[in-house]
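Problem: given the chain below (329 residues), write out its structure.
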Amino acid sequence: MKLVDGFQRRINYLRLSVTDRCNLRCRYCMPADGVTPIGHEQVLRYEELERIARCAVNLGIEKIRVTGGEPLVRKGILPFLKRLGAIPGLQELVLTTNGVLLPQMTEALRDAGVRRLNISLDSLWPERFTQITRCGDLAKVLAGIEAAEQVGLPVKLNMVVIRGFNDDEIEDFATLTRQRALAVRFIEYMPAVVDDGWQQRVVPGREILTRLQHRFELNELDRSGLAGPSRDFRIAGAEGSVGVITPVFDHFCERCNRIRVTSEGKVRSCLFDGEEVDLKPVLRGAQEGDLEALLWKIVANKPQCHQMSGTEHGGNLLAGAPTMSAVGG
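Solution.
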């Protein structure tokens, strides 16, 4: 079965948030004192999340990315991942993490069926890393990356590029891919907290590519059917790859293939669209309805494009968007 929206885009990718809690406080993601945690009774139980996943796969979802918050802080995450990995028809189970807890978990994640890790890493400088995360220890994340490589788990590094803060590290991140089979993804800055004048801190993807092309010989790579929004390249002779994700200056909406479920059971077909459907009443029997029909509805109503813009007079970045800690980006 194929899940197709009203603009004939095939939807085969589900981002599934398991928690809104996080052990870091990244400046573009949440306030310094964090966000008000969702009540325990509001967070979906693992069996509810699994039911959503199974229904989505039956409809045509082939890739599930487990996100948070930070998914590894939730108790019982490993048995849950193992059950997801065993769903018939699921081709790819991946996980996004900040990497802090990875050093002691990589082998167990691999054995549970996780096929790739996306690790958020915005600086290779210890002091700068602590500044952006407010409390993070870079050494722990780097140890987690090495541990993943040692057990054969492919790693993507997601770097949010912020002008005047870490954009001087673009070439350093790209250099990591020359001798290591890492995939580095440069993401345009799009804060989920109020940041007046945020547009001046965005480094457009085309500028990032120009800088990389001045330093390296780049060869563009073909996209797979389960690929995310990145345009990917390989530095000539490199083991890994680099890519750019451009939600602000070069919308990738025409090839968007995903839907998102928040940790409290709300489905969104677009991160920056206000429409969402709450699955909890159906999951918990408080309302008559069909889970499959609800998922079809949100896909059918998926907007053609969001209105976010990098210009001063562009769309409101925060309008309609949930906190990143609740929906996993």
